[in-house]
Amino acid sequence: MITIDIDKETCIKCSKCVKVCPAHILTQEDPKAEIGLRNVQTCIACGHCVAVCPTDSVIHSEFPAQKVHVLNREILPTPEQVMELCRARRSNRAFLSSPVPEEYLQQIVEAGHLAPTASNGQEVSFTLVTKPELLKQIADITINTFEKTVKKITNPFINPFINLIVPGAKEAVPTLSAVIAKHRGGADAILRGAKAVLFIHTPISSNFGRQDANLAYQNASLMAESLGVSQFYTGYVCIAVDMDKKRKLAKLLNIEGTIHAGMALSMPAFKFPKYIDRKDLDLTIF
Ligand SMILES: Cc1cc2nc3c(=O)[nH]c(=O)nc-3n(C[C@H](O)[C@H](O)[C@H](O)COP(=O)(O)O)c2cc1C
Questions:
Q1: Fewer CB under 10 Å: which end of the chain, C or N?
Q2: What fold does the segment set 4-67 form as a domain?
Q3: pTM greater than 0.85
Q4: What are the residues facing 60 on neighbouring strands?
């Protein structure tokens, strides 16, 4: 059970904790009044009250002193650096055959783990695969699922109705067939020879699992770019995960929840010296 106390000796009643608490648990009747508490049981343990307090006066059972750290704002990247990082992040699929250093993989996962989650649920889990035989199995499961799906869609008894059951299914056949043909022809059309794959998953019961996982993905992908590690989103694997009711990939990797995102990772054979413009920005302002 979460407990919160205010150290009345040290609290300077600045009300910052009151202003940042998303659950309105911390209260202050008047500008210089003591900080009060209500409905502590609704605390989502985001830690804002603890992190904002200038005098360490919020005593929160979830955040003992060893979990509270001083942020060094001096080393934050400038807006120009953040923008350049966004420009530099590409899905580079030209890989070296060397593995991704373990400390890089750790930092990539750590960055993903720092991403925000709905209601501060923090239910996102990560599964990192570097074993070559498992990487091969991931690609094979994906291709086998695609083959089964194409067979179903093109079945003359099902085909006339398939778009009513799964909108857009017929249109997916040429793309899926091309990927299957490429893979069966000997190319790794799914993981492109990547040396690691990071799967991001949440419990089946998570209401915002997909959103939480993809926010984690983007944090992790920006960290990968800043470390000089190439990544791309394993969209094909994720489509196959959604198609496969038997959950073969989840079973292979002992994942009990839902896999929402996957990141193929490898060291790049070279880097992109340029960036190109995206389509024109579509922005509406009211
Ligand atoms: C949801 C999603 C799924 C993707 N799936 C794949 C994939 O399965 N294989 C692949 O090589 N690239 C995949 N990509 C990478 C996109 O092709 C790539 O992001 C896009 O071409 C833009 O290039 P950039 O990432 O270098 O800016 C995927 C990207 C996203 C966002």
A1: C
A2: Alpha-Beta Plaits (3.30.70)
A3: yes
A4: 4
How high is the pLDDT of residue 164? 81
Task: Select from 210, 232, 259, 271 the residue to mutate for testing ligand 1; criterion: most ligand atoms less than 8 Å from CB.
Answer: 232
Q: How far is the CA of 93 from the centre of ligand 1 (A)?
A: 10
Nearest to 118 by CA among 185, 27, 22: 22
pLDDT of residue 161: 82
Backbone angles phi, psi at 262, to 5 degrees: -145, 145
Q: Can you list the alpha helix ranges (DSSP code H) found in 1-131?
A: 16-20, 48-52, 79-88, 102-113
- 230-233 β-sheet, strand order: 125-129, 196-202, 258-266, 230-233
237: amino acid identity, one letter: V
Where do you find CATH 3.40.109.10 in the chain?
77-286
- Tell me the torsion sign for CA atoms 82, 84, 86, 89: negative
Average pLDDT over residues 28-35: 95
- The mean pLDDT of the chain is 96
Span between the terminal Cα atoms of the chain, in Å: 44
Does residue 142 register a pLDDT over 90? yes
> Model confidence at 168, in pLDDT bands (50, 70, 90)?
confident
Is 77-286 assigned to CATH 3.40.50.720?
no
Give the three-state DSSP class for 65.
helix
